[in-house]
Amino acid sequence: MKTRMLGAVLGIAALSGLLVASPAQAADGVSSARVDPFESAEGRDYGGGSVRATVDFVSRTKVVFRNFTVRDLCPGDNLPIEGRVWWEHTDGTYGYGAWKSDTNGCGDDGTNFGNITRTGTKSISKVYVQVCSTYCDHSAARYNQYVHPGR
Question: Are 92 and 44 in contact (CB under 8 A)?
Fold first, then answer.
């Protein structure tokens, strides 16, 4: 009886493993970057901002950045906040998307630019989202699971 029960539990566990997310889904997900507002030594306020998108790798050569959103963070310093997507190919070359700016001022949810799709002939190794105000930062890399299985 114990042997059959153990066999059933192991069988269910093995089947459950087939139902969890496969490596093809593991690299997709939310990417974000942020630059924090700060005050300079001279007492000048510099604003910050953030950028966010859900990365969806479709194939070796196509990625969709869903709900790409740029948000200005207070203080209201009248400095622009910009964000963009960028990608690196497997051969080491890279590219950038166009800058997108939040012009609504601070205190709102930012500007959602919808989906940004990158398709080309070269395989995409990894992608980032980048945000710039007075200075820039970028998200952690998201690796294309069609190129880097298991990452």
Answer: no
Tell me the β-bridge partners of 112.
69
Give CA–CA dist 65/55, Å, rounded. 5
CA pair distance 118, 125, nearest whole angstrom: 12
16 Rama class: left (phi>0) / alpha (psi -120 to 50) / beta? alpha
pLDDT, tens digit (0-9, with 9 covering 90-100), for 30-61: 999 988 887 777 877 777 899 999 999 999 99
Around Cβ 111, how many Cβ atoms within 10 Å?
17
Query: Nearest CA to 56 among 21, 29, 89, 86?
Result: 29
- Look over the chain and give the mean of its residue pLDDT values, rounded to a whole number: 81
Give the Cα separation of 47 and 87 in Å (integer): 26
Split the chain (151 residues) into runs of 10 and give each run's mean pLDDT: 42 37 56 85 80 97 97 76 96 96 80 96 97 90 90 66
Contact 69, 52 (CB under 8 A): yes
| Burial class of residue 27 in the structure, from the number of CB atoms within 10 Å of its CB (0-12 exposed, 13-18 middle, 19+ buried) | buried
Say if residues 35 and 49 touch (Cβ distance below 8 Å).
Answer: yes
